[in-house]
Structure of Sugar ABC transporter substrate-binding protein:
Amino acid sequence: MRTQSRRSSRTLFAVAAVGTLLAPLAACSGAGGSGGSAGGGGSVNVLMVNNPQMVDLQKLTAEHFTKKTGIKVNFTVLPENDVRDKISQDFANQAGQYDVATLSNYEIPIYAKNGWLHALDSYVEKDTAFDQDDVLPPMTQALTAEDGKLYGEPFYGESSFLMYRKDVLEKKGLKMPAKPTWKQVAELAAKVDGAEPGMKGICLRGLPGWGEVMAPLTTVVNTFGGTWFEKDWTPRLDSKEFKQATKFYVDLVRKHGEAGAAQSGYAECLNNMTQGKTAMWYDATAGAGSLEADGSPVKGKIGYVPAPVEKTESSGWLYTWAWGIQKASKNAENAWKFISWASSKEYEKLVGEKVGWANVPAGKRASTYDIPEYRAKAAAFADVTREAIASAQPENPGVQPRPAPGIQFVGIPEFTDLGTKVSQEISAAIAGRQSVDSALKKSQKLAEAVAEKYKTS
């Protein structure tokens, strides 16, 4: 996630690159006032993604955080592609409209390098109750920039794994391997397709977006032996391995995947799995909490195994939705108080008691896995999730050296634009509007344009 060239030649491009996404939708709530003080009272403006765990946070904040501190939190909540666009605009311009935003381990090192974020080390040092040592090392490392300073705190952490209906496979006399290969998964998908009325074999993201279809697909590319760029920045989207992985993914979702796959992302696949419309789902480990939540129609019916592989030992991604403070914020003290609460042990216990232990935003703290109530509720997926996070290798996710770190992304500012444009080509192939060869031929040219900037710098 480190930029690989000089800041002076990349900052302006980074502004454009991180902003080239979809236009933002209307927010769920306005930004509100920007006043505040380091003491009690005041306010903080938070821009965040509309994932289920964040929706829980929004519901719990007034009664618990604001009541305790007097700090009012004004939330703006948007879908993933849209929130990225709005965050990039506000932070790149240092507009200061939002004090805190949900950023991932992709953006934070880049934003930090561009001077858009507050370093958090001084806050962590003073706030001993936060207990930074309890945060899982892969998360802390992923949110630390080139200068060695910490710029983000995880709200939840995740890797990726395969979720499957144990009961459906059992009825078919099928067994899920403890560590499946992608070829085994494809064979199982064919056999369970139609196992129940309206049920498809597997759900895979097909929705355009560098953080949508390109996330799972890139992990498949890695384990099939492909890479976006070789160590010397030679683009390899037209390589045999990249083509093989992409054809495999596209063929699998077209033959045995969900209806409307080209418009299905994380949210749609989660809904399909919850409603019994698919027998398997490869995606974020964070999805397990919703599947096992009280009231879920599939609670207790799901099995969890590591991300499927081919040529690598592991293939799960490493990801966190984390909190970052905009450098231009005039409410940094209040912003830290909110982050400290939202990423705390205290908040996790609050979610467990008020919402349900399966809904705890886990994957970030070692102590979470020692809570008896959490372990009991998340028994099906807790250990698999933690192991997936621990085994993720952002510096070495494939079979060859890389010029930039990242498992499901390439850690350069240009990847938001490049990944999004390539995702549109892949999604068109999933929709049947073009061949994979055609999609990758166009994508290779896009990657070549990016590579030239690095080869000549």
